[in-house]
Amino acid sequence: MSLDELAVETCSWAFGNSGTRFKVFAQPGVPRDPYEKLADAAQVHAYTGAAPSVALHIPWDRVDDYAHLARYAGELGLRIGAINSNTFQDDGYRLGSVCHPDPAIRRQAVDHLLECVDIMDATGSPELKLWFADGTNYPGQDDIRARQDRLAEALAEVYARLGEGQRLLLEYKLFEPSFYTTDVPDWGTAYAHCLKLGPKAQVVVDTGHHAPGVNIEFIVAFLLREGRLGGFDFNSRFYADDDLMVGAADPFQLFRILAEVLREPSGGIAFMLDQCHNIEPKIPGQIRSVLNVQEAAAKVLRIDRAALSAAQREGDVLAANAVLMDAFNTDVRPALAEFRAAKGLDPDPMAAYARSGYFAKICAERVGGAQAGWGA
Ligand code: RM4
Ligand code: MN
Predict the structure, then answer these.
(1) CA 352 from chain center: how many Å?
(2) Is the pTM above the cut of 0.85?
(3) How many C-beta neighbours within 10 Å does residue 44 have?
(4) What is the Å distance from ligand 2's center to 234 Cα?
(5) Which tens digits make up the pLDDT trace of 267-284?
(6) Closest ligand 1 atom, CA of 13?
(7) Is the peptide bond preceding residue 59 cis, with omega within 30 degrees of 0?
(8) What is the largest CA-CA distance in the chain?
(9) Is the C-alpha dihedral spanning 94, 99, 104, 109 positive or negative?
(10) Omega prior to 177 cis, within 30 of 0
(11) Which of 15, 27, 69, 74 has the most CB atoms less than 10 A away?
(12) Whose CA is nearest to atom 2 of ligand 1?
């Protein structure tokens, strides 16, 4: 694959207000509706040329007319990416959603997931991304195996509703908000459910959803080999699900992951950002993230694969490692600047956005109304 083909999906919620468990911080100029979120996402694409789609989160991005929203995205040069479901913010979900012991709550959750597929139909979105906050806090609280049965039943109903060209991406996360058991805690659980469902079900790897020290590139290599890697939620973590900018905490890990992914044409693997910009400005935060992925990919594309294979065949540990490190240690920024200039983009997207006056414009225009944020 070439850099030209690398597309990174931004996420609508990154443009809204966010924060911590303790405080959501309001920033000036924040979008008040999904249309304004798309307008901001279009800025990220305008300056990077590499962010042509935007993921939506339902109900945070609920509108009356989804086809209209998708047409607006088209006018901005964007398309609608993954539809992210949300079965974690209603009072009814205290004990879970699709795994809840009460069939009425499970029905409510599955109906929401089916509504998300309707939204895919209306917007042309190719992916339904499912992350469940389901789990338990205390030993004995619920039947662990029964919860798996309920999960499988819900997934099967949603899977059956998928149309041509639509797929279901099942995301896992070790813990949080549940602390004792999580119903989809790891890639193995997600993979097993996807296998049962069929070929349109794939695993999505959120880089922040593992225990410390987990070798994510191994998971990626395994899932790729099985044809079950559907995509990524890119972000960075230091401790848990920190949702910081991708490539900020551990650029070497990002390189190692992409080194596995970009071994083959990456078609069908959705590179998505799942981040929150709690203290930094949001549009530049997304631009920086896209650039970080692009930078890591550019380094990966410099890996001398022939030399690497030769060293591996010969069992030359140091030479093989050196091939990889040479690529990682290359400063690709000048080459990327040229690449952008050749495409008619500003070689420095961060500076170009800062100069553009867009931020002052949205601060002046977006006055009144409710700013978007978690739950909005
Ligand atoms: C979850 C998960 C999902 C994201 C929500 C906001 O932890 O990562 O992908 O949609 O957060
Ligand atoms: Mn995620």
Answers:
(1) 25
(2) yes
(3) 30
(4) 8
(5) 789 999 999 999 999 999
(6) 6
(7) yes
(8) 66
(9) positive
(10) yes
(11) 15
(12) 131
